[in-house]
Write a structure and sequence with these properties.
With 190 residues, this protein is an alpha/beta fold. It contains 6 helices and 10 strands, in the order αββααβαββββαβαββ. The protein has one domain: Rossmann fold. α3 packs across α4.
Length: 190
C-alpha cells in the first residue's frame, strides 16, 4: 500500500541498529483515514475466509482490528499483557516484549474463544514473530483455528514472516520493509 509506505517513510522513527519504530503511526497519533483504508484492503483480502473473530494484542493493534471488525461484522478479542502474575481462566503465553524489554505474560480469557472459531490475527508490526507465535499458541490451545494474519508493516530481514508462512497461515502484509540505508531511508518490497 503506497499510502502506508509513504506514511512509514515520513513518520516512522529509525532507532539504533536500523530498528524501525511505527508507534507514531499506530498508537500515539492515529490517522483514522489511513487505518480505514488499511481495513478496507484486509477486508477485501479476507472476504472469503468466513471468519468468526479477530484477535489482536494490546495496544497498537486495537484500532486496526476494530476498523476491520466493523467491515467484517465480527467481534475483536484483545490479548492483554501483564508483567509476571498468573491469570486464572485464561490461555497464556510468555512472549518477549520490545516495549518492556523483557518477557511478559500475554493472555486471552477462555470465554472469548471456542473451538469453532476461525480467527484472523491483526497487528501493526511483524519482525521476529514472538507476539504472533504467542497469540497463535493461545488460539490453538482454545481449539480455534488461525486462518490468516494481517500486519501493517512486516520487516523482511527478520524471521517473523517466514515463521508464520511456515505454519501454513495466510499472511497479508500491507507493507514490507526490505532495508534501511545509512541515512535512515526505508526501502520497501515491490
Amino acid at each position: 500500500m503506497k499510502d502506508l509506505e509513504e506514511r512509514v517513510q515520513k513518520d516512522a522513527i529509525v532507532n539504533e541498529g536500523n530498528e524501525v519504530d511505527v508507534d507514531s503511526i499506530f498508537s500515539q497519533y492515529v490517522d483514522v483515514n489511513l487505518l480505514d483504508e488499511m481495513a478496507n484492503e484486509w477486508a477485501f483480502r479476507f472476504r472469503n475466509l468466513k471468519l468468526t473473530k479477530i484477535v489482536t494484542i494490546e495496544s497498537s493493534g486495537i484500532a486496526l482490528a476494530t476498523l476491520l471488525a466493523i467491515k467484517l461484522n465480527v467481534p475483536v478479542v484483545i490479548v492483554k499483557k501483564t508483567p509476571e502474575f498468573e491469570v486464572d481462566d485464561a490461555y497464556t503465553a510468555r512472549i518477549y516484549s520490545h516495549q518492556y524489554h523483557q518477557s511478559i505474560t500475554a493472555y486471552i480469557m477462555k470465554q472469548n474463544l471456542c473451538r469453532d472459531d476461525k480467527v484472523v490475527i491483526i497487528d501493526d508490526f511483524l519482525a521476529n514473530g514472538w507476539a504472533a507465535e504467542g497469540m497463535i499458541s493461545m488460539i490453538e490451545e482454545s481449539g480455534a483455528k488461525v486462518v490468516a494474519m494481517g500486519v501493517a508493516v512486516e520487516k523482511a530481514q527478520k524471521a517473523g514472516g517466514q515463521k508464520i508462512r511456515a505454519k501454513g497461515i495466510q499472511l497479508e502484509s500491507l507493507s514490507v520493509i526490505t532495508g534501511v540505508d545509512e541515512s535512515g531511508k526505508i526501502s520497501f518490497a515491490e
